[in-house]
């Protein structure tokens, strides 16, 4: 959906926030130096575009790559642990709800565990019923 809004020029914002970023950007362009790597999707997309194909070569990574590897492995382990914790908590709530549709927590928050019908793509002619757990707002 397209929305048109008029925004008044804010010179203080431009000078404090935009100009330093713009100056840094142009300094990188003039030095023909890529911007620093960060965790944004924009950086992921740029790296994928820049290095979309591999050469088959092997490169020696810098010493700091050991820190990156430690961060990556730690993050993966934390995600795995968080997913297991999430699944266990969901299963406890589902078991407590049982065959009911809704469950109410002592603080008034509610969960629904409703059945919905979906087509089973491999069998297409068969419709299956799946229950989905959702936390409802108070």
UniProtKB/TrEMBL annotation:
This is Uncharacterized protein. Residues 112-138 are annotated as: Disordered. It comes from marine sediment metagenome. Residues 117-126 have a biased composition (Basic and acidic residues).
